[in-house]
Structure formats: structure tokens, C-alpha cells
User: Fold Amidohydrolase from Kosmotoga arenicorallina S304.
Amino acid sequence: MITRVIDSHVHFPLSDLRSIMNREVHPWVKSERKKWRKAWQFPVPQKIDDLEELIEEWYKETLKYDLSKVVFVTANGNDNMLKIVSSHPDRFVGYAHHDPAEPNAAETLEKYLQKGLNGYKILGPKVSVPLNDRSLYPVWEVAQSYRIPILIHFGIMGGAGGIASHININPLIIHDVAKDFPEISFIIPHFGDGYVFETLNLCWTCPNVFIDTSGSNQWMRWMPYELTIEKLFRKYYETIGPERIIFGTDSSWFPRGFSKSYFDEQYRAMVYIGMKDDEIDMVLYKNIETLLKGSAVNGNK
Assistant:
């Protein structure tokens, strides 16, 4: 029986959605997005710009689906994120999200960790320098000092019509970083987003690397071999065990809200590969709860 769930990967849907919806795109890209919504029976995204309204909509989602917590990984700015998590601290957790290559990135990260954020989200293909460049080490040093989880998106950025080639698109770019900073828990979302072999190798050699299960994982469609969510769960389960698999949905906009269909698909896959109830609990709750509780934020280092 499911008793507790933390969605570890949610985007707070502020005005970024407007620019995405209004952006000129190739007709093929538009058709692919429409096909994706149809496949999952998702409604057309609704544009809501009011922060307080969105906060309450997401709080209602936690009550409706009995979510212990949701972890917001982006919110169109760190100051917005602070407002969000302070509104319902019993249900909302927030990560800092800014370019690690920007000037004073380490100081910015520490500032927002001290104010109450609990992790750090990076979009690999959006960072201009290699993630293993020594110039970024001050950022990793701050993260290790506060023992926070770092979520790094690798693989295709933006889905159809997005970015497919970049120095930071392969998760193995952080191999040496993970070795040099063993107390940082690095989380690779979307099962590696097309880089399954590389992510499995990274997890095998670096015990501080976790994977998250978030999203529709539609990248499976264009892999050169057949993949399913069930096969992905089985491969990671057999390689690194249930202790380093973390549930997420990649939910964001309304009226969709919490992507219950993603949860259902993943839960079914875990049952079918024979995971025990306590192992499913690790994935849905315990693993991310342990990482968040292990962080030293608000100056309690």
C-alpha cells in the first residue's frame, strides 16, 4: 500500500510558460508537442502569472494527491523560490537555480542556501563551460559544505527542436567532479535522458550519483534499441539498487498540475519488476527525504 510520496522534480510554472507557448517553432515541432499532449491526455497549458494563485494551486495538488512534499527545482528566479517555499514549508521544498559559470555563482548559491533553499538545479546544456572545469570548483565546494543534493539535467534539452549536441550533454562530464566531491549527492534526472549506458557507468563508479525517474521519458522513442519504463527501472534496480532511485514527475503547469499518469506508470513498473514494498517506499519517499534531511542549510553547518 502507498502511504507516502515526495515528488522530487517539479517546476513552478511562472511566466516562462508564456514565452514558450508564444515562441515561433517549426510546424513539425508543433505537431510533436500536440502529439505528446494527446498521448498523455494532457490539456493545453493555461497561462497563470499570479504567484500567489499558483502557490495555492500547487498546495491544493499536494492535498488532492496526498503528497508529503513537492520539490520545486525551478521557479523563474531564486527570490521567487524563497517566497514559494516559505508559504507552505511543511509541503514545499525549493532548489536554487542559476548558472554555475556566472560571476559569483558560489556566493549566490551560499546566500540562498542560508536563506532556506535546500538544493541546486543545473541545466547542463545551458552552461557555457564544461562542468568539470576547475573554474566551477568553488560552486561544488559550497554545495559539499552544505551537503545539498545537486540535480543536473543532461541529454536533449527542450524536447523536439531542442539541443542535442553540447559539451555538457553527456553525464560522464561530471565523473571527476563526483569523485572529487564525494559528499555531494548528484541526481541525474529522466533516467539519463538518452544516455543510459553513460549514466549507468557513472552510477557504478560514483556511489554519490543518483537517478530520478521524472517526466514522460519520451526520449525512449528515438533510441536505437527498444526501451520501456519497466526496462529502465529493472536495469537501474539491478545495477545500483533501490537506494539511489528517486521518484519525480517533471510536473509544472495547470490545469494538468501533478502528473498522476506518470506516477501510475512508474508505480506499475516497480510492481511488475518485483520490487518489494519497502523498496518502492525508498523510491517514492525515503531516498529524497534522506538527502534533504542530510543537508545543512540556514547556517546549521
Summary: The domain at 6-293 is CATH 3.20.20.140 (TIM Barrel). Residues 277-293 form the longest helix (17 residues). The mean pLDDT is 94. Residues 60 and 197 are 39 Å apart (CA to CA).
